[in-house]
Amino acid sequence: MLGYTSSSIMNFRKFKRFLIVFLCVFLMLIPAFSSKAATEDNPDEVLTVGVPADRCPIFYEDADTGEIVGIGVDLMRSAAKNAGYNATFKTIEEATLKDALDNPAYDVILPFGSAITSTGGQASIVSENLFQTPFTLVTEGHHDMPPINVLKIGMLHSLSGGADTVHQLYPEIQITMYDTMQDCVQALRSDEVNALLHNSYVWSYVLQKPSYSDLTVQPSSMFSMDFRVGAADTEKGRDIIQRLNGGIASLTDTERQAVILDYTSRRLYRMDFGDFLYKYGVFILLILLLFVALIIIGVQRVYSIRKKNEEKLQQMIDHDPLTGVLSMRGFRKRVVELLSTHPDTPYLLAYVNIKNFKYINDSLGWDAGDDLLCFWADKTRKTLSDQETMCRINADRFAVLRCVGGEEKLRFDDHEVVDSVRNYFLDQGKETRVQICGGLYVLTPEDYRDVNVDHMLDLARVAEKKVREMRSDGYEFYNPQQWEKGKHIAEVTNLLPAALEAGDIQVWYQPQVDYETGKITGAEALCRWDHKKLGWLQPTDFISTLEESGLIFDLDKYVWDKVCQDLHRWNEQGHRRFISVNVSRCDIREDRDIPKHFHDLIKQYDLDPEQLRIEITETAYAENSALLIRTTEQLREYGFQVEMDDFGSGYSSLHMLKEVPVDRIKLDLRFLTDAGDPERGRIIIGYMIRMIRSLGMQMITEGVETKEQADFLFSQGSTEMQGYYFHRPMPVQDYEQL
Ligand code: C2E
Ligand code: CA
Ligand code: CA
User: What's this model's pTM, rounded to 2 decimal places?
Assistant: First the structure.
């Protein structure tokens, strides 16, 4: 029952073949059915319309849909529909309508004013007028327009058809064509043309651009232009145009007005970035400036807050929280600062420590210990000047940087500070005497050059340790010799200003003579100090100290001034004299114009520059020859005589002779005769004198103590001399008597 017979199998195969053929025929027929169905749904023929798309609101591309829309599109679509066409719009890519007419891709083209011949020579045919478009002139501002016969107008290239019409209507008008609206406007603004001509509807769109606000529409329209559909003058073209004419005729005026109103009433212009900048540029700039200003203010504020915090932090770590004096860290910084700003002040560094501090803490309590430290710090701080400083190193250890002030100051410190600290508890009725051990280190010149606070403190600590181990309390110097020296410097420098003020410094004169004639040729000014306690001091007692402390310049200025006063007085009395003054090598510095100083002096006292002879010691030239040579040259330019003092004292005398442009050499007999074989000395002196003479320089010999020396020098050719043999230095009154 379930088996298949061969005939039933045959029937099944036939059926299958029939089914395949049927399906094929069916599939082939589907497109025919569907196209028929479509034609019945939409009977219009497709009409491809080429239009320019750069003419909003007549033809333009909708920004949202990308479709070509506009007044011209809507009206054309209606007319075409009336004529049984389904119009589709295509943007004309060609430069002009004449070019587009040769493109078979478009069935018809818009807009034509009248029939034209294509670039390729093809004649055209145009439809009835679709609608009338007014053309208007636009000028820059409210410029008056020149008469029509000299009018120059600018138009867009794409309106070449319109240009032809204008030309036919007004042959006198000069028309210039431009590629873009921007070019047109630029030509108008640069007065290349008097006005621009375009479709009024397009103007209503274009003039919405903010940067064109200076353009004005001339109220009277120039002319109206037809807006026709054009096609190649072929059979197909003629057929389409004929059908379209029917469609155009069915368009009512109301319909036309409605479409025009619809588009011209919309704000179609979309501002681009340039417009935006033009319109809101100043505003944006102001906002930007405000923003930048805010950022700058903000950054500055953050910076100043941060700086203040840093300063606060620095302040904290640079100070000891218990006593309020500097911490070790702050002290290091302050010492470096002080030594660099006061390189000439002699300083000592004290390391001080309470020997029985642990006992005090244990017996009287920590608070009592703290009170003592605060008392001590306070007492010391009150005695310090601005040039001094102190710190609490740690626990009961203090360091003090103090100017060396001699024994008196030391005694004062001992009494004012140390004694009151010693008796701090005794004064409170407690039976504890505070034991203070101190080590003092007197700073050496090297300490100023390369400041190493810790090293100096170590040395002070060595002295302090000695006290702690040997005695109950007291202080000790690490370097007593330096202390003696420092004390002397301190005494001299502390007293100098008062001495100058009080006239304790005097200028003495040592005459210089011509051995041949016996006449006095001049004198050297030498200072003397009538010291209150120590009696008459010779320059050797204090000159080097003043040089070390930097005060020599004060003394020298004083001496030079006194000398000039004397010279002035003598001039008034009719005695023209010549005086040599000493200039310390420390006086000559980059920041001091010594030549100018002397020049001002002689101007002040009405002296001849050659009356002042300026002695600069030979060794100074070796130390800073460039500056010295420059100074010497300037002094000579001012007319002063420059003498090289102490010639023969240095190691480079001969070399100096070659380099330095001085007027006179001052040979010092003592350097050449004091030591060694006198006979050899004489030979050397003889050669030196001859050499100086051969170089054509003037010379004087000083330190002449005997007649033999004078005779010998004279025999060798040195006639000018200075020395005890002739005269010792003498007060000014004695010199005047001579
Ligand atoms: P100097 O410039 O070489 O001055 C000459 C020194 O030799 C003077 O010493 C003078 O008294 C001394 N003297 C003169 N004749 C003889 C002599 O025959 N035998 C001996 N043994 N000595 C003689 P004084 O006045 O003590 O001056 C010493 C130095 O002090 C001067 O040496 C000069 O370098 C310096 N000096 C003196 N007054 C001033 C000054 O006002 N300013 C500066 N910067 N330095 C000065
Ligand atoms: Ca001298
Ligand atoms: Ca000398």
Answer: 0.52
